[in-house]
Amino acid sequence: MTDGVRTATQPGAGSPEVATHCPYCALQCAMTLRHSAAGIEVLPRQFPTNRGGLCQKGWTAAELLDHPDRLTTPLLRDRPGGELRPASWDEALDRIAAGIRTVQAGHGRDAVAVFGGGGLTNEKAYALGKFARVALRTRHIDYNGRWCMSSAAAAGLRSFGVDRGLPFPLADLGRADTLLLVGANPAETMPPLMRHLADQRRRGGRLIVVDPRLTATARQADLHLQPLPGTDLAVANALLHIALTEGWVDREYVAARTTGFDDVRRTVAGYWPAEVERLSGVPVADLEATARALGTAGSAVILTARGAEQHAKGVDTVSAFVNLALALGLPGRPGSGYGCLTGQGNGQGGREHGQKADQLPGYRRIDDPAARTHVAGVWGVDPDELPGPGVPAYQLLESLGTADGPKALLVFGSNPVVSAPRAAHVESRLRDLDLLVVADFLLSETAALADVVLPVAQWAEEDGTMTNLEGRVLRRRALREPPPGVRTDLAVLAALAHRLQAGAPSYRLSHSRGPLLTPAAGFPTDPREVFEELRRASAGGPADYAGVTWDRIDGAEGVFWPCPDVDGPDSPRLFADSFPTPDGRARFHPVTHRPAAEQVCADYPLHFTTGRVLAQYQSGSQTRRVAALRRAAPDAFVELHPDLADRLGVADGEQVRVVSRRGELCAAARLSPGIRPDTVFAPFHWPGAARANSVTNDAVDPVSGMPEFKICAVRVEKR
Ligand SMILES: Nc1nc2c(c(=O)[nH]1)N[C@H]1C(S)=C(S)[C@@H](COP(=O)(O)OP(=O)(O)OC[C@H]3O[C@@H](n4cnc5c(=O)[nH]c(N)nc54)[C@H](O)[C@@H]3O)O[C@H]1N2
Ligand SMILES: Nc1nc2c(c(=O)[nH]1)N[C@H]1C(S)=C(S)[C@@H](COP(=O)(O)OP(=O)(O)OC[C@H]3O[C@@H](n4cnc5c(=O)[nH]c(N)nc54)[C@H](O)[C@@H]3O)O[C@H]1N2
Ligand code: SF4
Ligand SMILES: [Mo]
Asked: Is the Protease keyword given for this protein (predicted)?
C-alpha cells in the first residue's frame, strides 16, 4: 500500500492530509489526519491491525493539538516552593545545563538521571539513550516501559531468546481454534483488536478469558476463569498438569525444539487441580475445560497482558504460560503461539533502542563487550567511556534525592506522579531533587513539580517511526509544524548536548580514536537522520533494523523486525524453524507459585487491583483534557461486589475510601456483581485524592523490576 503522502524531508507541514497512526496505544491504529474547516480532523484508515476502526481516544486525539492547556513556552521555577513562570528557551536551557554541571561536579556523572517513555518514537527513544550515555555519561536511564512490558520481555528472552510481544501478525488471532487471554481486557484497552476476535468466533473458535473481573472482554468469552489476583502462575501450572495427565503434550515438538522439559514436568506434577482450585478459586471443571480447549485444538494462542504480568512474580507467571505453550507445541506453528499484548504506542520499539537501564540499541546488552564496541563505534566514542547498566525504573525513582541517589532528573514522556507505584513516596523523592526537568506538551502532575518545563511538539507535528505490538515498524507523519515557541524532543536533546559539550571541556566527548566532535555533533534534529543512525547501531543486534528504511515502510504496510537487509525479507512470523537461542531450541523454565508480596490480614482484609477504562489513557494527563473522554469517564471509581458493599453498608455511587499501608484513595463506589467479592478494583488514570497509586505496593519482580500494580491488601471504608 502506498500512502501517497509526503515524507520526512518534506515534513508534510502545510499539506492537506497525512496518513499516520494514533498517538496512544500499541495497536497503533491507522488514521488520516487532515485540516478541515472545523480544525484538524481524524479519519480512520484501513490497516491490517485496526481494519478501519478507531476507539474513542483515537477519534478525539487531535483535540489536544490546539488545546488551551497546551504549553507553548518554557517554564522556570526560580526557587524551591516558588511559582513556575514563563521563560525564554535560552534561559531554560542555560539553567538546565548549569544545574547538570553543578550536580555532576559535586556528585559525579551518575548523579543526573533520565526517565523516558514507551510513547516516544524510535528516533526519540534512541536519541534519549544516546544522550544519557554520551552527553551526560550517566548510567542512570530507565523508563515507564519497565512498568508495562518488562515481565513478558524477560520471560520471552529467557525462553525464546528474543522479546517481540507478538511473534506473529495480529490477524493470526482470527485463525486460532482456541484463544486464551490472561489478564487482558482488549475490549477496553484496544477495542479495534476485537475485530480479530470476532473473526475467530465466526470461524467457530473458542475464547477463554482469565480475569478477576467480568470485563467487557470476558463477557464475550465462552469461558471466564475468575481467579484471585496473583494466582495465574498456579493456574498455568495446573493447566499443564492436566495436559500431561491427559496426554495432550506434543512430545515430538518438545523433543525436537525445546530443552528443559523434565524439570517443568516434575514441577507441575505437584499442581493438583483441586489444590489450585482452593488457591485460585477457579473450579477444577473450568481448569479441565481450558486445558482441553488448548490441548485438543488444531491451533491455539495464549496471550498475556498486564493482569498477569504486573506482579512481583510477573516474570515467572509469564514463564508458566510460555511453558504451557511450549509443551503444547504452539510457538512457531501456524495460527498458534504465545504472545504478550504490548501496551504503549511504541512500547515495543521503546524497549529496543536503549532507554532501558541495561540496554544499548538493537536490543543489545550494555554489559556485553562486543555490543559496547559496536555501538561506541557508531557513536564515535571509546567503548570504555560508555557507562555500565543502571537500575530499573522504580529503584531509580526511589533513590532520587537520597544520599547516594541522583540529584537531577530529566523526564521525557512519563507522568510518574500519577503512574508510579506508591506514588506519594515517589512524589516526595521528586521534591527532594536539586533539579527536575520535564519535557511535555501539557503541564502534567509531574511537570507541575519541575524546576524547568520544556514545551515539546505533539505527534502530529513531527515525523518518526513507531513499532507496534506486532513488531511492525510504522511511520508517524507530521501534518503541520509545531506551534511557535515549541520544539521537538530531538531539538531539545540537541540543544542540551550542545550546551553540555560546549560549556565545559570535561563534558566534551573524548575520543581515543576519531576526531573531537563539534558541539552537539551526534545529536541531529532531523528524525530521518536519527533513524539512519539507529539502523547502523541496531545492525547485527537481536532487534535488527538495518534493513528497515522509511521508504520501505512507506511502500508496504510497515516492516517487521528483525530485518537485517534492505533487499532481504522482514519477519512477520518468528520461530517457524528455530528459536534465536544459542542451540536454536526454546528453553523451559520451571516456576513455582508464591504468594503476593502483601497478604490480606485483619486490618487489610481485601485484595486491591488496578487497571484501565476505555475512555482514559494512562496517567490521564492527555485524555482527562479531552471533552468527550471526560464526559465518558469523568471520575475515578471503586468497583466492588454488591455482597461486599452490603457488608460495608455502602450503596452504589457513595464515596468510599480504599486504604492500604501506603495510603488511600477516595472515589465513588461502583457496584458490580462481575467482580470477586474478595477483590476491589480501581482505574489509575486520576491524580489527587482519587489516585490509585497512593494505595499500590512498591514490591517489584526480582528479575524484571516490574512493580506489583495488580495486587495489594486494603480495607474499604465508607467516607
Ligand atoms: N483505554 C485504555 N487503553 C489502553 C491504555 C489505557 O491507559 N487506557 N494503556 C495502554 C497500555 S500502556 C497498556 S500496558 C495496555 C494494558 O492493557 P490490559 O492489560 O488489557 O489492561 P489492564 O486494565 O491494566 O489489565 C487487564 C486486566 O487485568 C485484570 N487483572 C487484575 N489483576 C489480575 C490478576 O492477578 N490476574 C489476571 N489474570 N488478571 C488480572 C484486570 O481486572 C483487567 O481487566 O493498555 C493499553 N491501552
Ligand atoms: N496502578 C497502576 N499503575 C500503573 C499501571 C497499572 O496498570 N496500574 N500501568 C503502568 C503502565 S503499563 C504504564 S505504561 C504506565 C504509564 O504511565 P505514564 O508513564 O505516566 O504514561 P502517560 O500517562 O502516557 O504519560 C506520558 C506523559 O508524557 C507526555 N508525552 C506524550 N508523548 C510525548 C512525547 O513524545 N514527548 C514528551 N516529551 N512527552 C510526551 C504526555 O503528555 C504525558 O504527560 O503506568 C503504569 N502505572
Ligand atoms: S485502540 Fe489504541 S491505537 Fe487504536 S484508536 Fe484506540 S488508543 Fe488509538
Ligand atoms: Mo503500559
From this structure: no
